[in-house]
Amino acid sequence: xxxxxxxxxxxxxxxxxxxxxxxxxxxxxxxxxxxxxxxxxxxxxxxxxxxxxxxxxxxxxxxxxxxxxxxxxxxxxxxxxxxxxxxxxxxxxxxxxxxxxxxxxxxxxxxxxxxxxxxxxxxxxxxxxxxxxxxxxxxxxxxxxxxxxxxxxxxxxxxxxxxxxxxxxxxxxxxxxxxxxxxxxxxxxxxxxxxxxxxxxxxxxxxxxxxxxxxxxxxxxxxxxxxxxxxxxxxxxxxxxxxxxxxxxxxxxxxxxxxxxxxxxxxx
Length: 268
Description:
Its main location: membrane. By secondary structure, this protein is an all-alpha fold.
């Protein structure tokens, strides 16, 4: 009975993801004058909708901007989260508890509460309307979760690993680089994928902090695209598919590492 309920729950969860994706894909291939595509697969798929959406919405510039922002955020955020997680997990610091508690407060901080102060701060130092205006705030916003993730991973490792290295005379840097990091590959891969997805899907910060439409992220550009072509459902669906495809491809490529990292954290 329990096994059957588990299978039904998994099937329902799968359907809740695949059915909307199928609906968007089917709608993107309908004639552009079809205002209510439904779930039926078109008899004559209009693949040129993707070409029209790509050129009309300027997605080449938008996706390049999303990629620049994501590649600027992910490496720096991973390095900082790893160093902070290692320090809070392994080093004997008197203020380790308060620092970690302060970081965890950041998980409850909504983007909406910091956008206006960020706008004026970045304007005062000349970073407004640049990629750094989004990259730097995102790194800071991602730190609480990243530090929590890496701290949990390092704390779950057997203490004998670091104790043996310390007895051999290894420094803190050598312990991190040669002992702990090799074990952290699944955790780092999972965290990197999450960071990339969150940075790629960034909407609000890019919309407010970058005024140049060509420098905005793909999701924020899609928002403007929807305002301009709100009645053209097939064209909007094609634009949506264009925006989400890179994340789907990246997830499928790193799927095993992602699942391994999630399951490893859950088991530990």
